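I am writing to request your help with a piece of structural work I have in hand. What I wish to show you is a protein chain and, alongside it, a tokenised description of its three-dimensional fold. Could you please explain, in whatever detail you think fit, how the structure tokens follow from the sequence? You will find the record immediately after this paragraph.
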Amino acid sequence: MSVSDLQLKIEKTREFNSLIDFARSSLQLVIVFQLAFSRKPLSSTEIARALDRMKKPILNALRKMKIKGLVVRRNDLYLFSDIGVKYLEQLGKTS
């Protein structure tokens, strides 16, 4: 990875942090990872079970993520919105 690739990743991470604020909401970040690694829409119950967390904090975090435009809810399943997918793709790029 070149220096410019690393700088781009840092900038994209800063942009993503401005949406989630990692320091204040690590649960949202963990949910992002769970959705990304599952590669399929998940219910709040599935997310809570996978993360070994109570459902209420998961629902609160998902609600905030919906407001920020990172996720959408379809038939009780949560998945990344177009904006969420865009951020994940940009973070994953190395060149």
User: Anything to note?
Assistant: The first strand starts at residue 71 and ends at 74.
